[in-house]
Amino acid sequence: MILVIDVGNTNIVLGVYDNKRLMQSWRMSTDKEKTSDEYGMFILGLMNAEKINILHINAVVISSVVPQIMYTLEHTIRKFFRVDPHIVGPGTKTGINIKYENPKEVGADRIVNAVAGLEIYGGPLIIVDFGTATTFCAITEKREYLGGVICPGIRISADALFQKAAKLPKIDLVKPESVIGRNTISSMQSGIIFGYAGQVDYIVNRIKAEMKEDNIKVIATGGLARLIASEAKTIDEVNSMLTLEGLRIIFEKNQSQNYI
Which one from 18, 109, 129, 214 is the annotated catalytic residue? Predict the structure, then answer.
C-alpha cells in the first residue's frame, strides 16, 4: 500500500491506496507549529480508526506548496513509517512538457492534477482547483502544460470581507436561494458563490479561446468544487480526489524504467 499526501496552505489531504484502489482519505489542517511526533500520532490515529496497518505502507508520496512544513513532515514519515518519502518536484518524471517560463515556479499540486487529468480524461483539459487559491491550468492534447490563472480563493475572499468591512459578519459558504439577497448574510453569500461561478465561466471561456483546441474538457477539484460547479456552466465534471490520484499515478510511473 502507498500513502499519498498533498500539503496545501490550508489543509493537508491524505489517502491510502491498495494498488489502484483508494481505501480511505482524510483532511487535516496545515499547522506549521506541529512537531513531527504530533503529525505522526495524528496520522496513526486516523489510520488506526480505519484499521489500516501502518506496517503495510511501503511507500509515501508527497506534493507540497508549503516549504516550511516539509522538514517536519519528512521526519515524520521516516520516523513512523520507516521509508524515505518521494517528494514531487524537480527531477520527478511526469510525462508533461511544462511551457511555463520558469517551470520550477509551477506548484507541485498543479502538475499532479495535470498528470491525473491526462491519465483519467485525456487532453485537452482545463483543471480548476478550488483551494486556498483558485487555480486554472491549461493542458493540451500533446501533454503540454501551457500555464494558467491564479485567483484569490473563495474562503480568502469571504474572510477579507469580514476582516476589512466593519459591519460585515463572518459567513458560512452556502449557496443562497436567490441572487438578490434579502439580508446582509444572503447578500454576501450571493456575491461569493454566484460571483465565483461567473468568474469561473468567464476565465474558462477565455482560456478555451486562447487554447484553440476542440473538445476541451473542464474538470474541477478541491474542497469547494461541488459548491461552485453547481452554478458554473463551463465545468464538465468534479473529481475531488484528482490530486490524490495524481500522486498515485506519478509514483507508479516513476517506478517504471520506460516512463519518460
Answer: 109
Neighbouring CB atoms inside 10 A of 34's CB total 18
CA 191 to CA 118: how far, in whole Å?
Answer: 33
Residue whose C-alpha cell reads 465561466 in the numeric block: 201
Tell me: the pLDDT tens digits for 206-255?
999 999 999 999 999 998 999 999 999 999 999 999 999 999 999 998 88
135 lies in the same domain as 64: no
Distance between CA atoms of residues 177 and 211, nearest Å:
35
Question: String of b and e for 217-242 (b: at least 16 CB within 10 Å)?
Answer: bbbbbbbbbebbbebbebbeebbeeb
Give the CATH number of the domain where residue 45 resides: 3.30.420.40
Q: Please indicate, yes or no, whether the overall pTM of this predicted structure exceeds 0.85.
A: yes
Range of the domain at 246: 97-255
| Residue 109 annotated in active site | yes
Task: Kindly state whether residues 73 and 139 are assigned to the same domain.
Answer: no
Q: Please say which residue of 58, 87, 116 terminates a domain.
A: 87
